[in-house]
Amino acid sequence: MRAVVVERFGVVPEVREVGRPGVPVGGVVVRVQATGLCRSDWHGWQGHDSDIVLPHVPGHELAGTIAEVGDGVTGWQVGDRVTTPFICACGTCEQCLAGNHQVCPNQLQPGFNYWGSFAEYVAVPFAEVNLVRLPDELEFETAAGLGCRFATSFRAVRQVGKVVAGEDVVVFGCGGVGLSAVMIAAALDARVIAVDTNPGALELARAYGAAATVQAGPRAVEEIRELTGGGAQVTMDALGSNEIVQQALLALRPRGRHLQVGLLPAGVQLDVSRLIGQELEWLGSHGMAAHAYPEMLELVASGVLKPADLIARTISLDEVPAALDALTAGTPAGVTVIRP
């Protein structure tokens, strides 16, 4: 099969022929029909993830059809249209049995623990707890983004942050995760304020339901506090930045909730005294389990949520190395989808 192969961290990868993945016991091999290009892939390529062993194939947002079914798998067959969370849970540990697949200590992640979906085929382990059946009317390009950015934002906003109608929600960073969060929070009738450096991203945020936008910079917190009459109920770091975290906490009103979704490979400094004195909540959110997808898929089917609108460009496998390298200069507006 053809795949994007990283030989050295930070060095632009190449597209070349490699062996197809074997089908794991209890798992399947998926023929990749679409896969998303995410900032997490850039972090992995830069060497920020200790699980990655070179040579490596990135890619963790995927949708496609089952090409092979491993021993022990029931309920799935070749040709089924599927997607999967980027966190593939084992299904048998204490956390999985409690329904918390997204924090499974035995998890495997395509594109990180093993070769991912920037390829024509990818393996999915523990198929019976990780595969999500796709409705026939849902396009593969749209479904690919549900595996990471959209599902991650849905769980963060809806299930972890428990955003309700009328709340002020500030989203810092309007890449794929941030724009998904804007759309989801707006659909919940929250008043969304989007913050980014990119005017194009802010324009998209307004199109997806943001009531106001703020240019990122030293006056961002002041503007947010003015817009919200003293601070927001909820802030979200959708990018992953120490500077954003500080601004997000300052933009909260007392007893506000901060959602941390963006990765922080360099760590972060927290004003713990402010957290205590203002009774602020710091809430981490990491993906979404396969069993939690039905609510999101129903909202997509009904037209309340429109993840297809987030797709700004579709590229080929041969264009991935340059597109990955371009993320070094910043995240472009909208979602990029790859058709292998």
What brief labels describe this structure?
single chain; about 350 residues; seven-stranded mixed sheet; Rossmann fold; 2 domains; alpha/beta; six-stranded parallel sheet
Textual characterization of the structure:
This protein has two domains: 2-148 and 288-339, Quinone Oxidoreductase, Chain A, domain 1 (Alpha-Beta Complex), CATH 3.90.180; 153-284, Rossmann fold. It has twelve helices and 15 strands. The chain has helices at residues 39-45, 94-97, 127-130, 140-146, 149-160, 176-187, 199-207, 220-228, 242-250, 272-277, 293-302, 320-326; strands at residues 2-5, 14-17, 28-37, 62-69, 81-83, 121-124, 132-133, 168-172, 191-196, 212-215, 232-237, 252-260, 281-284, 311-316, 335-339. Strands 3, 4, 5, 6, 7, 14 and 15 form a seven-stranded mixed β-sheet that branches. It has a six-stranded parallel β-sheet with strand order 10-9-8-11-12-13, with helices on both faces. Strands 1-2 form a two-stranded antiparallel ribbon. The model has no long low-confidence stretch (mean pLDDT 95). Belongs to the zinc-containing alcohol dehydrogenase family.
